[in-house]
Amino acid sequence: MTIRVLLADDQALLRSAFRVLVDSEPDMEVVGEASDGAEAVRLAGERRADVVLMDIRMPGTDGLAATRMIGADPALAHVRVVILTTFEVDDYVVQSLRAGASGFLGKGSEPEELLNAIRVAAGGEALLSPAATKGLIARFLAQEGPAGDGRDPARAERLASLTGREREVLVQVAGGHSNDEIAERLKVSPLTVKTHVNRAMTKLGARDRAQLVVIAYESGLVRPRVE
Q: Model-level pTM?
């Protein structure tokens, strides 16, 4: 199947460059361009986009607000948002993950990294740049809360619905490990891991693995650690 990509960036030159890159791939196509967040949300539905490459800083409705709007719309539940940012270590990135983004990528990334990010997001199998994202979330959450661990009591209560194995898998997901890596660590099959991940997402109301990582930190299941 062809991955339908929507480009959301207020710089026309960047959109043109991304279009040439994406359209050069046989398994993906650009189905629209937006110069602000509101237009991105509208086109995501109209053009049946699978993945939105979303600039975080745009005039009017910014990428963060647009990501929240997409995440809150049941009709756009299939849409995956990849945040593009000039500064990868950015508080806005964590807020975007919380709002429903599948991950983030620096604008200085190599072309192959961008294309791979689109494929990963469309497949919904893995968190983009897991180690970097995990470190970013840890640094951000370490600054929150009276205990300095960013714990959210409501999130912690929701963990009670998970089985012991699901909690174990969630810890591994928060560590940035893929299904295959988790399977090897826990001595189970990758399919079993995928089942546990899907059940955890359902129970915790997470759209994808990116939000599972955030929940793991917010609930206190995994403690932030600043290197």
A: 0.72
